[in-house]
Design brief:
With about 200 residues, the protein is mostly helical. The protein has a domain of about 130 residues: Tetracycline Repressor, domain 2. Helices cover about 75% and strands about 0% of the residues. It has 9 helices and no strands. It is elongated. The N and C termini lie far apart (about 45 Å).
Length: about 200
Amino acid sequence: MTKKTLANLSDDKRERLEKAALEEFSKYTYDEISINRIIQSIGMPRGSFYLYFNDKEDLYLYIFNKYHKLLLDFIIDKIKNSNDDITDAAKKVFEDITAYIDKGEHGILIKKFLIGLNHNIENKIFNLEFNQVNELIKVCQDKYHHDFKDIEEVKCILDMVSNTLIHHLTGYYIFNLDYDKVKNLYYRQLEIIKKGIS
C-alpha cells in the first residue's frame, strides 16, 4: 500500500512521477521495471521516493489501480449504453478494448500489464480489483436483472465472460495471434455461455 505521505506530494510532482512511471511501465514488463530509471528521469532523490512508496510493487499497484479503474469505467459505460444482452455487450467491449490498446494513449501500458505480470503481483491485483468489480456487478445486475435468477448468477456469468476475455487478450498480445481468429473464438465461447450446454 502507498504511504499516507503520498497525500503530501504536490500535484505537479505526483503528475511527473506518474508520467515517468507510465513511460517505464509502457517499455518494460514488471520484472524489468527500474525505480532508478523512473526517479532519475524526473530528478527525484531515491530517499524522497521511499517517503511515498514502499517499493516498486507499491508504485506498480498504485498505477495499475488508477488505470484499471479507468478501464472498468470504460467497460461500465459501454454496458450502460448498450441495448444488447451481456454477451453481446462483451463482444463490443472486446472490440473497443483491443482498438484502444492498439491505438489509445495508454494502450502499450495496458498491453504490458497484460503480458508482464508475475503470479505474486497478479494475486495482489486481484484483491485491488475486488471493490471496483463490485460496481460492475451492480451495473450488470440492474441492467440484466430479468436475465438472471439472482446476484450470484450475475457474478458467475461476469466471471466466465471476464476470464474468457482476459484469456483471449493475453493470448492475442503475448503470442501475437491472428486478431480475427481470437475474436471469432471468443465470440463462439460467448455464444456457448449464452446458450448453455444443455
